[in-house]
Amino acid sequence: MSTNFPTEHCETCPAFTQLEQMGIDLEKFDRVIALAGNPNTGKSTLFNALTGLKQHTGNWPGKTVTRAEGAFEFNKVRYKLVDLPGTYSLLSASQDEEVARDFILFGQPDCTIVVTDATALERNLNLVMQVTEITDKVVVAVNLMDEARRKGLDVDTRSLARDLGVPAIPIVARSGEGIGQLLSTIADVIDGNIKTKPRRVEGTPEFQHAVNELVPMIEAAAPGIPNARWLAIRLLDGDATVEAALRDGTLNELVNRQQRAGVEFSKKMAVDGRQ
Amino acid sequence: MTTTNDILHKAAELRGTLSSGFRDEIVKSLYSEAEAIKKRAVHSKGKTDYDLDQRIDRILTSPILGLPLMLVILAIVIWITVVGANVPSNMIATALFWVEEQGASIFNAVGAPWWLTGFLWHGVYRGLAWVIAVMLPPMAIFFPIFTFLEDLGYLPRVAFNMDFLFKKAGAHGKQSLTMAMGFGCNAAGVVATRIIDSPRERLIAILTNNFVPCNGRFPTLIMLGTVFVAAAFPPVYASIAAAGSVVAVVVLGIFFTLTVSWALSKTILKGEASAFTLELPPYRKPNFLQILYTSLIDRTLFVLWRAIQTAAPAGAVIWILANINLHGVSLAQHVANFLDPLGVLMGLDGVILLAYLIAIPANEIVVPTMLMVYMGTGMMIELDSMDALRTLLVDQNGWTMLTAVNLMLFALLHNPCATTIITIFKETNSRKWATLSALIPLGLGFVVTIATASIARLMGWV
Questions:
Q1: Domain extents in chain B
Q2: Taking CB atoms and an 8 Å cutoff, what residues of chain A touch B37?
Q3: Which structural domain, as residue segments, surrounds residue A139?
Q4: Taking a contact as any Cβ pair under 8 Å apart, which residues of chain A between 125 and 154 contact chain B?
Q5: Please, what's the b/e burial string for B429-452 (b: 16 or more CB within 10 A of its CB; e: otherwise)?
Q6: Non-local CB neighbours of A198 within 8 Å, separated by 6+ positions
Q7: Which of A60, A190, B24, B77 gets the highest tally of CB atoms within 10 A of its CB?
Q8: Hey, is A83 helix, strand or coil?
């Protein structure tokens, strides 16, 4: 299968010869990558560029309301890519945001790409920092660099990466610019070649103490649960849905379900290719 | 062994040690940090054409010009569709019905039984041919333009222009977005209501999504506007009148969306409208190939294929109904006669209601179904042009302007297609709401058409 990226400056780039779009061939995969981001930042465009699928894209916030999945191979490693609904925050409770939150929390992706809009970084960084609160394995894709250039904005991704503690890669998903670098960075983060050290909310000493008290208890009650820290913060905040999930045991179930759910459900979504 | 209750107790206890505003503090520090990081990373090089976006938005979303401009744009799109679709529609119809003739005569020549020829060629095939001839050209013109506006970023502006109306109706402002999605497909619009977090407002959005005509119903509306409404005007104004009538139906649909939302929020779904922010994305240069792909493959062929899948069996059902006789009259005629009193009361007739019954799986096939019943029960004529169509309906089946207008109204106000009803059931997980979503528009359809028919008759217009 060939790729549809522009070839002039890509032919010489080894990364591109190593990308193979595999559409909905989700039978075997080695790694799972989640695609998160604010609405209308080009998640679906990146999804299509990587998988070769034709997930409907549109200049339209809130277009993806359920998750879609596809596959690609890079450097002989097979990846499953999960396109999550766009969300401003992981704290609120509308159903599309819950889909995104549950998957990042309990789906245990090997890496989460947060797609951001280079022209509206401030708003986008809120979500990045909420995601890094949940997981270390994060790569920020700074998309729409072409639009930023058109608007006369100079975006320093190295400064971003330094401040956030996770890699930040400039890309233009529509033309394929920077995709090779994005993919090799993801591989490095998963392999541990790049060590991420996300900046986290420190809070007051009382807050830190409270979190440290709760985390071991949560881990004891729900063995194997990822992101106990995040759950502890939610409990301190009095998040009713998390409390209820803990009380009736659905939390454990949620962990299991998110890990299993994958293939059948998502295949249907990917085939339908529409929401 | 730690139990969940222990954890919850501990959490409550620890919460007491924290200052009450700790959540706000965390959120605030998140925001200020985001701002600081952005300031260090992004530098503006002065001159931008960012202003251009804002200047365009000041016109397109202006409180005074926003809504009228929206209607003008819609009218232009539909006018282009009406004018452009006429000729190819006739050409496709001529070609496909020529194939039917040839096919049928080959079957006759080799001595196939009459019922096989009739069933396959005059039943199944004719159903397919009609669907393609009536629907393909308008879709191939309308969808690319629609997709262009979508990719450009105009649709969120539409939502922006209207969200205050929804708030006034006691619904969620984001419903203007899901309503706009409904113009594409009501089932998609219903799924899109997931962006509304309040269950009450989400239900309102689901129950009223069907009040805007979807892509499956636009071809019907455009055809009715072209063949009937336009015919009442001098040729010069014909296409404008046709486009105008379709726009009028759309406006009426929005009116019903708002009125029913208001009624629901004052009765069974009481509550206050919640606040929200709506982001206007930047205008983006649409990708030409992407538009062609989305509009022609994803939309046109998708809708057409769905129509074909339902039209073929519908064609078969109609042929059987029209050719099995009971007491010397076909079954189709029996059913149509039975429905006729109600149909006439509504300014329609029994055949139209029968067509709506058969077309429940997909709205796309209402007109083809209707025509097949008329042709099957009446005289077989060759319909190779829009004029022939008018002859069939007006001269042979007694259609008046009232029939056309009420059919447009009924096309707007009736139960959603089966796909949408199933989607509503899945989204709400409730038979009650799914049933109600079908009964509300259907009930309104009966009330409105009966009212217009009675008024028209009282005034002596028909």
A1: 60-271+285-458
A2: 121, 125, 159-160, 163-164
A3: 14-198
A4: 125-126, 129-130, 147, 150-154
A5: eeeeebebbbebbbebbbebbeeb
A6: A132, A133, A136, A138, A164, A165, A166
A7: A60
A8: strand
How many independent structural domains does chain A possess? 1
Which of B375, B414, B392, B442 lies closest to B217, judged by CA? B414
Asked if the model's pLDDT at residue A146 lies above 70, the reply is yes
pTM of the model: 0.66
B429: left (phi over 0), alpha (psi -120 to 50) or beta: left
User: Is residue A265, in this structure, part of any structural domain at all?
Assistant: no
Least confident of A59-73, A172-186, B12-26, B219-233: A59-73
CA distances from B87 to B90, B133, B134 (A): 5, 11, 11
d(CA A199, CA A182): 21
Name the strand (E) or helix (H) holding B372: helix B366-377
Q: Say yes or no to pLDDT of B82 above 50.
A: yes
- Structural domain includes residue A28: yes
Mean local confidence (pLDDT), B417-442 = 89
Residue A148: name the closest of B202, B42, B337 by CA.
B42
* B328: three-class secondary structure by DSSP: coil
A100-106 long-range CB contacts below 8 Å, 24 or more apart? A100/A36, A100/A67, A102/A254, A102/A258, A103/A34, A103/A67, A103/A258, A104/A34, A104/A36, A104/A131, A104/A134, A104/A135, A105/A134, A105/A226, A105/A227, A105/A230, A105/A258, A106/A226, A106/A254, A106/A255, A106/A257, A106/A258, A106/A259
Distance CA B184, CA B77 (A): 14
A264 has a pLDDT exceeding 50: no
Rg of chain B over Cα atoms, rounded to whole angstroms, equals: 26
Q: Which helix (H) or strand (E) holds A208?
A: helix A205-221
**Res. A256 pLDDT band, cuts 50 70 90:** low
Residue of B nearest to A245 (CA): B4
Which chain B residues touch A125 with a CB distance below 8 Å? 33-34, 37-38
* A18 in B contact zone (CB under 8 Å): no
Average pLDDT over residues B343-353: 91
Is residue A259 assigned to a domain? no
Residue A237 resides in a domain: no
**Which residues of chain A lie closer than 8 angstroms to B38, CB-CB?**
121-122, 125
Whole-angstrom distance, CA of residue B133 vs CA of residue B336: 25
Rounded mean pLDDT, A26-46 = 83
What does the block give as tokens for B299?
């939309």
The percent of residues above 90 in pLDDT, for chain A, comes to: 22
B368-394: average pLDDT? 65
Cβ contact A114:A99 at 8 Å: no
Task: Specify burial of residue B326 (Cβ count, 10 A radius: 0-12, 13-18, 19+).
Answer: exposed
Residues of B in contact with A116 (CB under 8 A): none
Are B8 and A235 inside 8 Å of each other by CB?
A: yes
Instruction: Say which residues have a Cβ less than 8 Å from residue A118's Cβ, sequence separation at least 6.
Output: A142, A143, A144, A145, A147, A148, A153, A155, A170
pLDDT of residue B386: 63
State the Cα–Cα distance between residues B359 and B183, nearest whole angstrom.
19
Q: Which residues contact A94 (CB under 8 A, 6 or more apart)?
A: B194, B195, B196, B197
CATH number, domain at A172? 3.40.50.300
Has residue A123 got a pLDDT over 50?
yes
ipTM confidence: 0.77
